[in-house]
Amino acid sequence: MSASDDRHLEGLEVYRVGGAVRDARLGWPVKDTDWVVVGTTAEEMQRRGFKPVGRDFPVFLHPVSHEEFALARTERKSGHGYTGFVVHASPEVTLEDDLARRDLTINAMAETPEGALVDPYGGLADLEARRLRHVSPAFVEDPLRVLRTARFLARYAGLGFVIAEETRTLMRSLAASGELEHLVAERVWTETEKALSEPWPEVYFQVLAACGALAVLMPELAEDDADLDAALGRLHRLPEDIEAEAQVRWRWARLVEHLGDDERGTLSERLRLPRAHRELATQAARTRALCRRVATNGLCGAQVMRWLDGIDAWRRGDRVAPLISLVSLDAPSLAEDLALAWRLAAQILPKALVAEGYQGRELGEELARRRWEAIEGALADPGA
């Protein structure tokens, strides 16, 4: 059932807004549809069966489609950060008032249920010009918009989009103002995680670096331009056959694998990263360190053992194959040696040694010795 003939919406002034309007006109997949309702109250929405879900402003779920319907609202700056706003929603707030509070003009378009466009801020012209431009000077009131703008460019850069110079100026002003420091870690990571799933994730970090935001939010990445450029070049060089849901973790790991343990740990703590992201980044860093040691000193069994111990391979054998695939991107012969060494070492199982009578500390020592011997044998005789 369309919104135009929905009995729950009968008599209400509703408009499709935001991403659904933008992406439909770009020919981009539309994943979610959001609606704004003008001229009514929260009480009336609930009387019609809509379920309230918004904590900071009145948002309701449609009783059948479960799409989001928000009352038209305005926002007034009242403090620091992206939460420092007073929200006002009432029947007097117009659609134009609601659209004016949005970040970019391409996100400030609306359309009626019948598809008629409402575009008071020139979003369609900017969409056709492939331009990301702020709606109003109020852009600087929300520091999160710096990250959102960078993320949208990471999504659309391949279509020829650019950030308007006047918007870049406001982003630089925001980065220099100290407002970014008031963003909570979860919001910074949420935007960064979304950016890492976009088609051109490197653009996100390039934009943040150019406006000064990266030095504020992720200084470990911003310290050396050459290191950052190399890290961004790795974002599309991932192991083969990883699952789609693991792509973001792998991109993050590749981004930070060059950092020292302390730097990487500090960054992880600041952003409050999920455990899986931290662990994979550590595994990638240790794999990188192995490759560098091998390039300098050659390959030996002790190095392979340290690497396997470091990535907890004996308990988490599923970690090994993707990391070997990672090695193969730059050192295919080394990857072949590691694969053979792992295959032979993994065949040495504790239960076999227990059957021989080993227990306790002696069991662990003998297990490590035999695994090392298997690895040394594989490296000495690759045809084994």
UniProtKB/TrEMBL annotation:
UniProt entry tagged with the keyword Transferase: yes
Entry keyword set: ATP-binding, Magnesium, Metal-binding, Nucleotide-binding, Nucleotidyltransferase, RNA repair, RNA-binding, Transferase, tRNA processing
Cofactor names: Mg(2+)
Any one Gene Ontology BP term: RNA repair
Domain of life: Bacteria
Gene3D superfamilies in the cross-refs: Beta Polymerase, domain 2, cca-adding enzyme, domain 2
One example GO MF annotation: ATP binding
UniProt xrefs under InterPro entries: CCA_bact, NT_sf, PolA_pol_head_dom, PolyA_RNA-bd, tRNA_CCA-adding_enzyme
Domain tRNA nucleotidyltransferase/poly(A) polymerase RNA and SrmB- binding: 160-223
Residues annotated as domain Poly A polymerase head: 15-133
Record family assignment: Belongs to the tRNA nucleotidyltransferase/poly(A) polymerase family.
Name assigned to this protein: Polynucleotide adenylyltransferase
